[in-house]
């Protein structure tokens, strides 16, 4: 490398470093610097540029200026407004200041100028090293340019053209955005190899920094984008809501829920759930469909009587009084209930069997349950299980289903308004089951005192304590109650009423009740005793008193109408008035044929609606031995008819019947009122009697009714519901009833008023039945 000494004017630079081969412009304002420029213009346009150590110093002295600077050529001068000159220079060589003179007009330096030889003589090793470094630097630098986004083609092109390593180093150094000190350091580095090495490190470093910056930048940008979008949407929503006047409503609604939750003393789980749902409501916006679902749920949750209990009154004496007050008769039912309550009082728990009141409709099962609730000072809820066939109806649907609703138990508790109501499960025998699960299973859990303290409804999803609920159930018949449920219940039978009982119930309870409901005073409408009898006999035919109550109600309404229209102060309801109000009598109790007939027998049946008489008719015709059964008979009844047929065929001789009838006669058994389905085995004796009568052509006594299951050997088996059946037979004007011997014990349960008027014949064998039913078959015929 050659050196050459030169005396040159100097401009101290502020904040910039100039490398050889670099073209740059800067503004010159200081007087001394302008003078130095002028001097240079006179002297080959050559000037020495060295950087000030501290850019802030206005009038630097020797020590304030770096020793190493650049010999440069002035390319252009441009006068700017104000005494500033913009100068374009090109750095040519590095130079070291040997001495500096701070002259009056400008600085002058004597500097040693280094001239880098284009074709330097270097050893092969050094040359290879230089080549390697140069290539690396080129590669890295173009990476750097790419990363920094500065990809202007001319730099990259010019990079490719630079062969000389020293020049490359300076070009790269001038492009990099480096700190003042580092730039100076690079300038002061006279050795090309070292300069390249330094630069390589710097470039690699810069690349890393750029990469990290880029990464951060990307993340920040992503975040910013998301935030910005959300912010934008929210603002938009706010404005829309404001326009619609909803924003305020939403807030008020949420606040209302909050204060409700605070006020209610909810159990922990329920409270947490309520707050969680509320937070969801806030974020979903109440006009979304999700908002609606949440609101419905919250309303239910907050409406349930979580911590409310009524205080039990367990005064047995008072309970008895209340039961007496509300109901006529039903002595044994009342007695059993008092017994049940006493046991509960002593043991102070609700564990144990659950009462099931079984009986025909309208006999006061619901109203007894209501009275029990009144006696115990418990709230009363009633839930009908009729037709429930899906477990979800008891236990609710999961909220994942669209339109999910809570189960009936939870709904009942909402109505109950206390956690210890009396909960009546009505018509437990009318539950069905299908593929969606058995509701009886869910009900078992509800009724089981061991499990029901943690009952969990699928919709509510929070445990609910049902252990303080007193459950009561009702059913019309025991046959269809699922066995496991029946095992947990204490069955109390409520049977139908006799004519006298009905009379008293109407007089003492139903008339005052109906008058009260219509706001009529006792003396304004009077219904005579004969009228009451007329209504019971002529217009109702039921075990209970439900339609009786309806008839009374409609009589009272008609009477009120008459009072209004004819401006009467009072109405006396006599039997003709009853007929005027209700139309002609519907039932005629003398309806059973008073004539003895062949092949027609009155049976006694027990339906879900109480007892009834059930005529059986048999016709015999010449034919080929066909047996036809009509009248909507159930399977059991059909089988019972076939069993009767077989018995008659087997005993034809004894019964004085032509033994070939099964070949030569067609037999048709019909049970009238064909639209009403009938079933059960208790018509067995009736079928046999009708068959024998028809085949032997002996008449059947019209005053006799019968009931009893049969075996093929002719035994008569016991049946259920004797009391109901006897009441029905009596109502139908029968005076003799043939019943199975084994039912003898049940006769004592029949009220004396009926018992006294019926002649009971106990039969162990079919023979006894036939003897007493067929005209001319017995010896004591009247
Ligand atoms: P169920 O539940 O057995 O079908 P309800 O309890 O609905 O019958 O009774 C029907 C109506 O008959 C009610 O108004 C009830 O008060 C009345 N009732 C039934 N039995 C009696 C009775 N023994 N004394 C007074 N009223 C009765």
Please tell me about this protein's structure.
The protein is of the alpha/beta class. The protein folds into six domains: 2-115, LON domain-like (Archaeosine Trna-guanine Transglycosylase, Chain: A, domain 4, Roll), CATH 2.30.130; 121-152 and 168-242, Methane Monooxygenase Hydroxylase, Chain G, domain 1; 249-303, no CATH class; 316-493, 3-Layer(aba) Sandwich (Rossmann fold), CATH 3.40.50.300; 499-582, Orthogonal Bundle (Helicase, Ruva Protein, domain 3), CATH 1.10.8.60; 597-773, Ribosomal Protein S5, domain 2 (2-Layer Sandwich), CATH 3.30.230.10. Helices cover 45% and strands 20% of the residues. The protein contains 27 helices and 26 strands. The protein has a seven-stranded mixed beta sheet with strand order 19-20-18-17-22-25-26. The chain has a five-stranded mixed β-barrel with strand order 1-3-4-5-6. The chain has a five-stranded parallel beta sheet with strand order 8-9-12-7-13, with helices on both faces. Helix 8 packs antiparallel against helix 9, helix 17 packs across helix 19 and helix 21 (635-650) packs across helix 23 (684-696). The longest helix has 53 residues, at 192-244. The model has no long low-confidence stretch (mean pLDDT 87). It comes from Clostridium folliculivorans. It is an enzyme of class 3 (hydrolase). Belongs to the peptidase S16 family. Residues 8-207 form the Lon N-terminal domain.
């Amino acid at each position: 490398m050659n050196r050459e000494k030169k005396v040159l004017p100097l401009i101290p630079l502020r904040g910039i470093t100039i490398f050889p081969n670099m073209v740059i412009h800067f503004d010159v304002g200081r007087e001394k610097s302008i003078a130095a420029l002028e001097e240079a213009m006179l002297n080959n346009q050559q000037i020495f540029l060295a950087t000030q150590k501290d850019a802030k110093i206005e009038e630097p002295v020797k020590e304030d200026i770096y020793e190493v600077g650049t010999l440069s050529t002035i390319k252009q001068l441009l006068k700017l407004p104000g005494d500033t000159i913009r100068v374009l220079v090109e750095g040519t060589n590095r130079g070291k200041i040997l001495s500096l003179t701070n002259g009056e007009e400008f600085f002058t330096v004597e500097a040693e100028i280094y001239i880098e030889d284009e074709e330097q003589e270097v050893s092969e090793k050094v040359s290879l090293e230089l080549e390697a470094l140069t290539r690396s630097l080129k590669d890295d630098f173009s990476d750097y340019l790419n990363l920094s986004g500065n990809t202007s083609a001319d730099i990259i092109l010019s990079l490719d053209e630079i062969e000389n390593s020293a020049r490359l180093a300076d070009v790269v150094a001038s492009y990099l955005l480096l700190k003042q000190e580092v730039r100076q350091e690079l300038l002061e580095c006279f050795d090309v190899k070292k300069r390249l090495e330094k630069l390589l490190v710097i470039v690699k470093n810069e690349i890393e920094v750029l990469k990290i910056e880029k990464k951060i930048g990307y993340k920040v940008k992503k975040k910013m984008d998301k935030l910005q979008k959300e912010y934008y949407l929210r603002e938009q929503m706010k404005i829309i809501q404001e326009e619609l006047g909803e924003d305020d409503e939403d807030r008020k609604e949420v606040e209302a829920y909050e204060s409700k939750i605070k006020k209610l003393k909810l159990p922990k789980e329920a409270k947490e759930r309520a707050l969680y749902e509320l937070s969801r409501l806030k974020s979903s916006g109440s006009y979304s469909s999700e908002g609606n679902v949440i609101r419905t749920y919250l309303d239910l949750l907050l409406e349930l009587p979580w911590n409310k209990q009524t205080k039990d009154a367990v005064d047995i004496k008072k309970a008895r009084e209340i039961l007496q007050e509300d109901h006529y008769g039903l002595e044994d039912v009342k007695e059993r209930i008092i017994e049940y309550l006493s046991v509960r009082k002593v043991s102070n728990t609700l564990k144990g069997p659950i009462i099931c009141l079984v009986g025909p409709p309208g006999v006061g099962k619901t109203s007894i349950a209501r009275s029990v609730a009144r006696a115990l000072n418990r709230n009363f809820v009633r839930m009908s299980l009729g037709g429930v066939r899906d477990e979800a109806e008891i236990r609710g649907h999961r909220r994942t289903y669209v339109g999910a609703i809570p189960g009936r138990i939870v709904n009942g508790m909402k109505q109950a308004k206390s956690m210890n109501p009396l909960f009546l499960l009505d018509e437990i025998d009318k539950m069905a089951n299908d593929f969606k699960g058995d509701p009886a299973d869910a009900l078992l859990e509800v009724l089981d005192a061991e499990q029901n303290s943690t009952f969990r409804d699928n919709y509510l999803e929070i445990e609910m304590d049902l252990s303080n609920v007193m459950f009561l159930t009702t059913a019309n018949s025991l046959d269809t109650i699922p066995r496991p449920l029946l095992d947990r219940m204490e069955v109390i039978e409520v049977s139908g009423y006799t004519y006298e009982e009905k009379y008293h119930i109407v007089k003492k309870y139903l008339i005052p009740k109906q008058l009260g409901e219509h706001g009529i005073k006792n003396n304004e409408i009077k219904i005579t005793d004969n009228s009451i009898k007329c209504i019971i006999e002529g217009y109702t035919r039921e075990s209970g008193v439900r339609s009786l109550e309806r008839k009374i109600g409609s009589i009272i309404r008609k009477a009120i109408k008459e009072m209004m229209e004819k401006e009467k102060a009072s109405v006396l309801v006599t039997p003709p008035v009853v007929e005027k109000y209700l139309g002609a009598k519907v039932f005629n109790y003398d309806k059973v044929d008073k004539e003895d007939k062949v092949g027609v027998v009155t049976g006694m049946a027990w339906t879900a609606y109480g007892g009834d008489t059930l005529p059986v008719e048999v016709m015999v015709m010449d034919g080929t031995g066909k047996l036809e059964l009509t009248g909507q008979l159930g399977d059991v009844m059909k089988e019972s008819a076939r069993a009767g047929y077989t018995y008659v065929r087997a005993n034809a001789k004894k019964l004085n019947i032509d033994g070939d009838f099964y070949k030569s006669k067609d037999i048709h058994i019909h049970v009238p009122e064909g639209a009403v389905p009938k079933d059960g085995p208790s018509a067995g004796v009736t079928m046999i009697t009708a068959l024998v009568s028809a085949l032997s052509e002996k008449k059947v006594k019209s005053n006799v009714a019968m009931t009893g299951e049969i075996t093929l050997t002719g035994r008569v088996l016991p049946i259920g519901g004797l009391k109901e059946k006897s009441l029905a037979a009596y109502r139908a004007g029968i005076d003799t009833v043939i019943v199975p011997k084994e039912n003898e014990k049940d006769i004592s349960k029949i009220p004396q008023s009926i018992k006294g008027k019926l002649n009971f014949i106990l039969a162990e064998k079919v023979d006894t039945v036939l003897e007493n039913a067929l005209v001319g078959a017995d010896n004591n015929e009247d």
